[in-house]
Amino acid sequence: MRRFLIILGIALLSYSTTDYVYATIFHVPGVYPTIQEAVDATANGDTVLIADGTYTGSNNTNIYFGYHEIVVMSENGSENCIVDCEGNTRGFHLDNPNDTTSVIQGIQIINGDNVSEGGGIFLNGASPTIRDCFISNCTSTVNGGGVSLVNNSNSDLVECQLIGNSANGGGAIYCSGSDVNIINNLIVGNSAENGGVVVDNLSSVNITNSTIVENTASSLGGGIYAGDDYLTIKNCIVWNNYPQQIYVTSATTIVTFSNIEEGWEGEGNINTDPFFVDPANGDYHLQSIYGSYHGGAWLPDPNHSPCIDAGDPDSDYSNEPEQNGGCINMGAYGNTEEASKSSWFIVEITYVSGSPVPPGGGNLFFDVLIEYLGLEPIDYDAWLDGYNIRTWKSCYGGAAIIYKLSTRLDHKSSGYVLSYTLGLPRR
Q1: Which of 43, 78, 274, 425 could form a disulfide with 108 if both were Cys (CB 3.0 to 4.6 A apart)?
Q2: What is the CATH number of domain 15-260?
Q3: What 3-state DSSP class applies to 41?
Q4: Under a CB-based contact definition with an 8 Å cutoff, are residues 258 and 269 in contact?
Q5: What does the pLDDT average to over 344-356?
Q6: Smallest Cα–Cα separation from 410: which of 353, 352, 362?
Q7: 3-class SS of residue 281
Q8: Residue 373: is it exposed, middle or buried by C-beta count within 10 angstroms (0-12/13-18/19+)?
Q9: Which residues are CB-contacts of 251 (< 8 A; sequence separation ≥ 6)?
Q10: DSSP β-bridge partners for residue 204
Q11: Contact of 159 with 129, CB cutoff 8 Å
């Protein structure tokens, strides 16, 4: 039996100002004119809430939490709240080794420039969550153009975008001696001597549902560079990086259910064009003939990405919008509200009898089960060794029908190939 499940999916990164709001809220600039002044006034568990705007200057950059375990977040997401370092310093610096609860959320950090670690964010022994942050055009002359995590900085980076950053090691992210989870990240166009993402010095890093594309290294590992560490990659797209997609020295590396250009051994891995919507203009959603997210509208695309519904079947996909295919999408938008949509169409082709075909020809018999859960009729063709056996058969929503089909081959055949094609929903 061959079973084909055809479905589409992409995802939207949701944002809520209530995700991490605790205790007393300190408003910037309504009550405190700068971010650092608000941070200095907090106690553990408080929240600094930043209004829309662009923040510059010494008290709005290189923001230091000290021993405050707090939330610093924007009111309306990273597209509306910008920390512009103006090429003078980084955005944030945390070094409290006891801090595992702080959060940096919904902030755009641009134009960071630091002569040491972390052009955008430097974590030295601190373990905050970094969520929904956009980090771009930040530079470190050492490591971590976007984010540097060293000395047991065991953090989660969730739904972040790291675009066009640069460093000596880890143009986007540098992990040294830290346990890091990189989840639903878009990592594009970063540059370094080694690695868009660097995993180093006995780090343990899990990269899940992330899109790592168009990063370059002058030496090794344009996409990912791993030394003597532990690295897992799942439900990811690693594509069009130079000179290698993934470069491993001695790290234990497990890659599954991911689309890796040039291929990588592992369960569920593929090596095929991911069909991004518009990469030339920074849109790395997956194309779907049933609809992908286009800035607030769901529009059909000319192609259907093989990364849709191709992630780990055991991964949660509940945040993907209806209609989804019952399986998570690969890439940064998998299991988010911006996941590209799928058709609900299941085909099972079961060979019954008749092979091998004798020299004089003969009949092959098989069953085709069609189950379609969509709302509009859809047409399909079934094929056998290039011979059309049933064309333009309509299947209506909610149906689960078995067609008993056969075809006659007029030549000797020792085997057969079953396949089918789908048409678009009829209007």
Answers
A1: 78
A2: 2.160.20.10
A3: helix
A4: yes
A5: 58
A6: 362
A7: helix
A8: middle
A9: 199, 226, 227, 228, 229, 230, 231
A10: 179, 230
A11: no
Q: Look-up: residue for tokens 């011979």? A: 387
pLDDT at 388: 43
Summarised one tens digit per residue, pLDDT across range 239-295 is 999 999 999 999 999 999 999 999 999 999 999 999 999 999 999 999 998 899 988
| pLDDT value at 412 more than 70 | no
Give start and end residues of each alpha helix (H) in 204-363: none
What single letter denotes the amino acid at residue 157? L
Distance CA 354, CA 364 (A): 4
Q: Give the residue among 275, 286, 279, 162 at the shortest CA–CA distance from 224.
A: 162
CA 227 from centroid of its chain's CA atoms: 23
Long-range contacts of 312-318 (CB under 8 A, 24+ apart): 312/234, 312/235, 312/256, 312/257, 312/268, 315/209, 315/234, 315/235, 315/257, 317/9
Helix (H) or strand (E) holding 37: helix 35-41
Task: Identify which of 396, 389, 375, 397 has the alpha carbon closest to the alpha carbon of residue 421.
Answer: 389
The Cβ of residue 407 has, within 10 Å, a number of other Cβ atoms equal to 18
The C-alpha atoms of residue 102 and residue 94 are separated, in whole angstroms, by: 10
Could you count the other beta carbons within 10 Å of the beta carbon of residue 205?
24
In this structure, the strands spanning 113-114 and 139-140 are parallel
Closest CA to 107 of 159, 43, 143: 159
The answer on pLDDT for 89 being more than 90 is yes
**CB neighbourhood size of 367 (10 A):** 14
Domain range summary for the chain, segments of one domain joined by +? 15-260, 345-422
